[in-house]
Amino acid sequence: LRSGRVDLGQRSETVHRANLSAIVRGIHEGGPMSRSDLVASTGLTRSAIRGLVHELTDAGFAMESTAVRLGTPGRPSPVVRLDPRSAVVVGLEILVDSIAASVVGLGGVVLREARADRPGRNLEVDAVVGDVAELARDLDFDADGTLIGVGVAVAGVVRRSDGLVSTAPNLGWRDAPLGAKLARALGVSVPVAVANDADLGALAEHRRGAAVGVDDVLYVSGEVGVGGGAIVGGVPLQGAAGYAGEIGHLPVNPTGRPCRCGSTGCWETEVGEGALLALAGRPRDAGRAGVDRVLEDARAGDPTAVAALSQVGRWLGIGLAGLVNVLNPDLVVLGAMHARIHPFVHQSIELELDRRTLAAPRSLVRVVPATLGPNAPMLGAAELAFEPFLSDPAAWFSGRDVSLRVASA
Amino acid sequence: LRSGRVDLGQRSETVHRANLSAIVRGIHEGGPMSRSDLVASTGLTRSAIRGLVHELTDAGFAMESTAVRLGTPGRPSPVVRLDPRSAVVVGLEILVDSIAASVVGLGGVVLREARADRPGRNLEVDAVVGDVAELARDLDFDADGTLIGVGVAVAGVVRRSDGLVSTAPNLGWRDAPLGAKLARALGVSVPVAVANDADLGALAEHRRGAAVGVDDVLYVSGEVGVGGGAIVGGVPLQGAAGYAGEIGHLPVNPTGRPCRCGSTGCWETEVGEGALLALAGRPRDAGRAGVDRVLEDARAGDPTAVAALSQVGRWLGIGLAGLVNVLNPDLVVLGAMHARIHPFVHQSIELELDRRTLAAPRSLVRVVPATLGPNAPMLGAAELAFEPFLSDPAAWFSGRDVSLRVASA
């Protein structure tokens, strides 16, 4: 029976741990909540909430303070916060042009972060792993509370089960065991979870950015390559092995340019960084700085730059029209380079959506720029690393609660 | 708190009804099961299963018989079956060329069915509704047990919440309240659930056809138009309002032919029935019979027919390559016309998938023809109509169980 499985034998302990998880996840995602809010949002009794919150404060993960409730009658309800330093993760990001590292505390608080541009640098897996590990060590990632895990966003196709980068055409990697290599380089024994950068950008924008509260979202992330991440019914779209979302390799132009993936006419050959730069008469490899120049020129009214952006916008609209027909999202979030060029491309996008999207999904969808900026994938990597903790915080309790010790024995 | 909500106040009654649902759904989808199988698959105790099965037999929905267990030691465990005539649904299908109706019993048993070709007939909503209702009445749909609901598969974009057909380009419909009209024409007060034909074909192939047990599936249904339905992580992909899966309107050839949706170069202009017929030198509107002729010619070695099929296969592969990159399915199921032409197009498809799909998702995916034949959408419509019953069979109990009566009061 695939659904409705209810295992009565373990019910009370399972429910207890699920309730702790619900409280921690709710505050981690939504911010501090009063006990009354927790009662309302969980359906648990006031005394059950009191007991669970005490377990969390006893274990050192939460703190309570009295809220000042202006204009609300009655006794103010204590506000429950998470202690960001009680559980931390390392969020890492590996793009073609840059790497980044962060230490993120419970509740999604960025404690420390750093980014290093490395255009033209050695892209060998070991060289990149060494540089990323150094960046993370410079942030003293184990100087805080319990290290829960490490999350890594990488511009490639990742097998979720073991962090193997199957292909990263723009990094030139194939079958690279990135998760294992990073665990060794960092000298950590906690899990290292690796995922595609756009999938994690989508997760971050859904949890803390432009798509908070929206259940059906397509996140498009354009840089050298173009990736995507979708949220479907509130859940990240993974596919059979975590490879879903490779929207940059939709064939949109049968007479188009060769793509680094080996095919021709992929969407990324029309809407990636190289396409914009070439249309604007600049070297394809001029990078982020080159794109900034194109944007400056366009702001100054330069017709070549304006035409290049409008052409990229037209192709953005063509691909998005197809994806909106397939996925029926409420919201399309443009990230990375596509967020930066949004003011210059949104009209062309809307025009193509009007022409090419069926009326019903067209009437529902909005296209907006991402709000978390270039760090979205790294923030998503941190969220990924927090996941085991959020699913079962009690597993990190150090034995104050007898029933939990018994249950895990 | 979005996840992990556990409402303790109603726990025991909620768990009881969920357990009844798990048993009924398990047998409906997987066939008769012994009590021992039910114990193993639900995690419930033997005595809990005994009690729940008795409730189902008392209510008239299940029957028990003693299994003969060859070679198994010990007392044989009674086998629990559902009575197909105790709860029935009407499954309907509305395509451009034909309509169909069925009476389906609990467990997915097709009790009666009929299909009527109506090529060239009046496609006005009311005319089609009248014909479909007549076909259903001819099947004596209310001659059996309790009528649970009506499900309708239609070749159009459907708003799930109320059965409004927003657009059906190939039927020429816009904003047609199909669900409401059918309820009136059939004279029923049970719910009439309407959904896109390809979405329902996907559901049926997933539950009873080529994709049983596969969690990530893309179903492609080619006829006059081309539709799709995806199963993502075991769950049908719906999108924000149930419009997802319109894969026929992926722009694959922006300088291609005009599409009935108003755009140009949509996938269905390259792989739909009209495209195949035109390439084979036949009238675009020669329909299913015309396609049969093309297949006969190809079997006889006619080069025009063979070339036409291989060209359609190439475009099938191009579009599928993009969709596999986006969705990372384990399995692509070709339905309707695409199932019939599969022997002549599968090589071209595989070739384009090799060229255009990223290595990782490519290595996982298989492309197979559907196994349920042309009735798949209608069978899916019946499954849709059973859904409220499967989710809470106790709501149909007629008061034998006091606790249920109290709970629903």
Q: What do you see in this structure?
A:
2 copies of one chain form a homodimer. In chain A, a hairpin with a 4-residue loop joins strand 8 (157-159) and strand 9 (164-168). Residues 1-10 and 399-409 of chain A have low confidence and may be disordered. Chain A has 409 residues and is α/β, with parallel strands linked by helices. Chain A is 42% helix and 22% strand. In chain A, helix 2 (35-42) crosses helix 3. The first copy, chain A, has helices at 11-30, 35-42, 46-58, 125-138, 178-186, 197-208, 268-271, 273-279, 287-299, 303-327, 337-340, 342-356, 359-364, 376-391, 402-408, and strands spanning 33-34, 62-66, 78-82, 87-94, 98-105, 109-117, 146-154, 157-159, 164-168, 173-177, 192-196, 217-222, 226-232, 235-236, 331-336, 366-369. Chain A is built from 15 helices and 16 strands. In chain A, the strands form 4 sheets. In chain A, strands 6-5-4-7-11 form a 5-stranded mixed beta sheet, sandwiched between helices. In chain A, strands 14-13-12-15-16 form a 5-stranded mixed beta sheet, sandwiched between helices. At the A-B interface, helix 1, helix 2, helix 10 and helix 13 of A face helix 1, helix 2, helix 10 and helix 13 of B.
